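Entry 12.
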Amino acid sequence: MINAIYPRCISGLYRRVFSWCIAVSILLLPAMLFAQQGTTEWIRPDHAESPPVWGIRNGIVVALWPAAIENPRPGNDGGPRGLLRIGYEWKNIVYHINYIAIEPVVNGNMEFSEISPSQVDGKWGKLMWAGETADPAKFSAAAGTRGIVVTDTLSQVITDTQHPGNTILYLYVFMEKFINGAHPYLRLSIHSNRPEELCIEVFHQPGSATMERCGVSATMGNYSRLRNLYLEDTVVNARKLYAGYQDINFIEKAAYPLPQLLHNHSGDVIVMAAPDETLNELSAWPETPAYTARWGWRYRPFYKLVQYWRVAATHVDHSLQARVNGRAKYWGGGNGDPSAYINIPGGPSFENFELRQPYRSGQQFYFGLTRKTIAQLLLE
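Predicted 3D structure (tokens):
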């Protein structure tokens, strides 16, 4: 039970006891700049032909293939196609933390953007590209847009009355049509007063097959060794949930319905996942040839982050549920040879991490990376 793992400040009792508390790198990326908007420093492409990377200083960063978020250099394409690359910027350094996949469901058939073959070249991963209007135009491997910065006058987020010059950076992300007929697109936005959070709105193109659901799933929780999942009255630990599991594939158990999910002070549903290790433990890496050859899985940031999904109270469907799956070994690229895999140090951790509810045009999901504590997130 949660009492033995974490204070009851994340249970229903928390809201009664603590409600009174409310009163109280980018390493010189070429072809990019920090655009000043008051005190906000936006990370934006220098022009339409620059690498497709957007974000905010001291906060979240998002990129598209073939741009690398971390350590950009010739030959580094940032990883698989068909995914949003999610990073975190602090003290002028950007680290790549996770990926977000698009997973539309048509007639019960779910397709995965990172492994669904492209209709252009047949390779894994849907091509994605950006624009500044809902017109999809044509695919480009370059940015296509610097993103639009607007003044936040009708914000659905917490208003910072001491800093009224809040702004929003937004852009559209388009993708190829899926084999199951789904043809979604996204509008991404970052609010200057919530710099650690990316808003993802989901829409569909004319002619798209009817989508029963269009999931957006964080798919690389193993990199951060996310093992604690915070729910209404308990903390679910991946090591205990998947104890004894050693296979190379995913393992999944029952999803968590709305009554088991936490709400923050504003009434939004929020599900959080975090490492269960100290920073020293998380950063440690076995000194063997197999692990040296796969050093890219070693945790590199000099801080820990809580990762979370949030749905605003006004956008919550009664069928909303949280879903996770786990792995005991790092992803080996789909290779069926067990020797292509290495154990995750310390045991199984959560890999995919998402909120699910039926599709409706314009639905919103917020994904966050934060240095805040669990209690601080719940006070928002």
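Annotation: Residues 12-18 form the longest helix (7 residues). Confidence is low (pLDDT under 50) at residues 1-38, 154-163.
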